[in-house]
Amino acid sequence: MINAGSAASGRLTRREMVRRLLAAAGAGAAWPLVAASHPIYAHLADGTIFDKAEKLVAADWKPLFLSAQQEESLAALAEAIVPGARKAQVDRFIDLLLSVETAKHQSKFAESLAAFEAESQRQFAKRFPSLDASQQNTLLTAAAAQPSKEDSPGGGPKQNSALRDHFENLKGWISGAYYSSEAGMRELGWTGEYVFESFPGCEHPEGHQ
Predict the structure, then answer these.
(1) 195: helix, strand or coil
(2) Measured between alpha carbons, how far is 79 from 128 in angstroms, rounded to an integer?
């Protein structure tokens, strides 16, 4: 086990929680659902922006990078992919990270959001935030089941292959943001006193998890 330290309140800052998760990962426990090659991993390992994360709870919060419509889409997608993400303010944390990201990764993220909005319109003639839970799950499950462009024989159906890659991109951002929050940390086993040496598998019931 990794001791949680001397915080009398039993609470850790996001910086401290991430530091301990990375220490556990270094001891052989894989970070839940986030590849080390994903852009968010560098942010989590660096941690310099975490001090600004304390401002995400402000009542007058506004996105720094995303448009209001993009932020609404992200919040809905995050909650559909990882239940509890909205309460953990995953969308706000991702927006903060994107505000200091490279133009390449910013553009790729925006493309991924747009791809799901386009698919939502194609299948249901509605924006993703307007879909009911069953429709959201149908869309995400189908996207997750598609082969990626690299895995698809002969290139495969380009639209569906690309949607799978967009799904993986968004899932990496969302899961990384969620599991570096207090809610995500507790889901991994942190009780205020310790975290597990190895992380339990994701137990969300949706197949696209």
Answers:
(1) strand
(2) 12
CB-count burial class (<10 Å; 0-12, 13-18, 19+) for 143: buried
Q: Give the whole-angstrom CA distance, residue 186 versus residue 203.
A: 13
Question: Is residue 83, in this structure, part of any structural domain at all?
Answer: yes
Cα–Cα distance for residue pair 76/65, rounded to 1 Å: 17
> How many residues are listed for the chain in this entry?
209
Q: Encode pLDDT of 87-142 as tens digits.
A: 999 999 999 999 989 999 999 999 999 999 999 999 999 999 999 999 999 999 99
Q: Do residues 49 and 39 lie in contact, with contact meaning Cβ atoms separated by under 8 Å? A: no
Structure tokens, 101: 């990201």
The number of distinct structural domains making up the chain is 1
Rounded CA-CA distance 175/190 in Å is 17
pLDDT value at residue 187: 82
Which residue segment(s) compose the domain that 125 sits in? 33-178
Within-domain flag for 18: no
